[in-house]
Amino acid sequence: MKKFLFICFIFPLLSVAQEKGIAFEHDSNWDKVKAKAKAENKHIFVDCFTTWCGPCKYMSANIFPQEKVGDFFNANFVNLKLQMDETKEDSEEVKSWYAEAKRFATDYTVRAYPTFLIFNPDGELVHRIVGGGEADAFIERAQAGLDPEQQYETLVKKFEAHPNDADIAKKTASVASAAYDEALGQRAIERYISLKGAEKLLNAEDINLLIDGATSSNSASYAVLRDNREKVDELLAEKGFTINDILSSVLSRELIMPSLREKDKEIDFAALKQRIEKEHPYVDMAASITRAKTQYYLTKKNWPAFKDAVNEFIANSKNPVAPMSLNNFAWSIFENCDDAACLQAALTWSKQSLEGGENPMYLDTYANLLYKSGDKENAIKWQEKAVENAQEADRENYLATLDKMKKGEPTWD
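That's the Thioredoxin fold domain-containing protein sequence above. Prediction below.
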């Protein structure tokens, strides 16, 4: 099952008639919106969304129509929905906002969706919110846009005006991270480190800031973490991960993932591992490299190599591999491979995914693998368990698979 993420990365106005929720402007333009805000002494709330963004749709369908959300936003803001993409179905009103949407994307650096911009009654940008959320939390985030002490753009101006203020630098780094402004976040963290000194940042309060700032091996945060690994591990003792997890993740993004994105490139993992170990001998990259192998051979559709890579990944993982990952590995084999050794390995992974409980999706995977392996009797028993544990919306699909098993029909393409 998929979880909803409240943000879509990459870039008109829709009129929405709502009885209780946010009242958005329509049949208007930016100058009129600003004039209305000025006359009513209200801030301006702009929902920058795209038609393809699931979280944007979630906000419009489930959050904006709520009465308490409408009460807060209608009392404090002139509200505007601004569509950032262009489609064939766009109305003339939507098209009339095309130029303004492009300007917003450029002038206000809108790169992720949904992005919500807040302007003061004079039409000056003072705050931004990136990503949606549930009603109460979203209202709280918007409330910050009315408070000069918490406003994003206001804080940025203070950051520029007070280069020797460590507290402002720290606040800016935190707010920039929440707004997905990586460039500003890095500048703020580097300034904070410079003003405070690395040793004074090795505490429970600042460690999360350093971790957020370690976006590359060249960042100041990465250097602090790398050079104080023992102390950092002490601070991370109760968090369930280690300094090696953090550093290897950064290096994986920099040195491994780019190669995986080159579809026609052949990767020599042994040479890659040797090079990384030579350049970064302080990090154990074994788990990262073996996980990369699974992705690589999955893309290449080399199923025997994929089987070996998954087994290596499971063996090298210091922590138990997540049931969802095990299930996904197993399902990839079921859908694509008839090799007996691959199917047997997938059965092992699938059975391991069930150790934490009888999730119907994992039960379905295990039953299908048994069936494809020729064990029809046990496959039917496990598929019946999947049906019993399934929610109503999924039960029909599991029943259809069970019916095929009983008839002796393939359950795979």
